[in-house]
Design brief:
The chain is an alpha/beta fold and 283 residues long. The chain is built from ten helices and twelve strands. The longest helix is centred in the first third of the chain and has 22 residues. It starts with a strand and ends with a helix.
Length: 283
């Protein structure tokens, strides 16, 4: 089986290359190899003759997407459409990584796969348009929505908090947004499990449990041995960011459970493993 992974140098892509390796020939491509905004993207995907494509490449800077909605659409919606068209030509199945930000956050119970998407920002809208492109162009598709992704590679909230502590900066973190922090290594394992069994359809996949960004920051500090560092709570409005975020975007992993898979481990346990891996990699 030949598996192509886009966004192979990103925090999820690196983990996917590792977890997918036992399941076939894995080809990792990033923007230097496959620019999804280029007109020949579909031809390039088809030429790789994949059995599966795991499309992890995306424009994920939420505020950057709000400042440049056309750019977000070009990458996350139109670019995904090109990848999907390449899969259609190659008769390949497609895994598309999507986001909790397709929801508006008005619920106070976890969002299921059956809930209606209503994104608040350009990032969420562009990812939802990507989902629709996948559904319309590919006969065998798997859409995996996740949330609050972090890992040992790339930029993320965990590394930002640790960097601010090291620099002696004041920590102020919002306490009115709730979601499920998800470790890229765990998500990659889940995607690999779905792909290896040939699963298709829409799945919500996150680590178990939920918290606010403030509580997430406090746990990062505790596990890093820096719990003496103070963190000030703040409201989202105080940040004055370009993009609105959903106040509540916890995802119910209903389809995952219905398929007979065990829940992913609790997010604090996964975070502890990530911090251990980060310490080892920095030696």
């Amino acid at each position: 089986m030949r598996i192509v992974v886009t966004g192979a140098e990103g925090q999820l892509g690196v983990e996917l290359l590792r977890t997918l390796a036992p399941h076939g020939e894995v080809i990792g491509v990033d923007i230097a190899d496959l620019d999804v905004t280029h007109p020949d993207c579909a031809d390039r995907v088809a030429a790789l003759d994949p059995d599966w494509v795991v499309h992890a490449a995306a424009m994920t800077d939420v505020d950057g997407c709000e400042r440049d909605p056309a750019g977000a659409t070009a990458v996350n919606a139109e670019g995904t459409g090109r990848v999907a068209e390449g899969c259609r030509r190659a008769d390949a199945a497609l895994v598309y990584l999507s986001t909790d930000y397709v929801f508006d956050g008005r619920k106070r119970t976890p969002y299921t796969e059956e809930d209606i998407a209503a994104p608040l920002n350009a990032y969420g809208r562009s990812k939802l348009e990507g989902e629709r492109a996948v559904r319309s162009l590919v006969s065998r598709w798997l859409i995996v929505r996740t949330a609050w992704l972090y890992g040992t590679h790339g930029r993320n909230f965990v590394k930002t908090i640790l960097g601010k502590v090291k620099a002696g900066e004041r920590l102020r973190v919002v306490d009115d947004q709730v979601g499920s922090p998800t470790y890229a290594a765990d998500l990659a394992g889940a995607v690999t499990m779905l792909l290896s069994q040939g699963r298709t359809g829409l799945f919500h996949v996150t680590n178990s449990g939920s918290c606010s960004w403030y509580a997430f920051a406090r746990e990062i500090l505790r596990l890093a041995g820096a719990d003496v560092v103070s963190v000030d709570r703040m409201a989202s409005d105080e940040l004055n960011r370009p993009a609105r975020r959903p106040a509540y975007s916890v995802l119910e992993n209903a389809a995952w459970r219905a398929a007979g898979f065990p829940p992913l481990r609790p997010w604090p346990e996964a975070l502890a493993d990530m911090l251990s891996a980060l310490r080892l990699s920095s030696r």
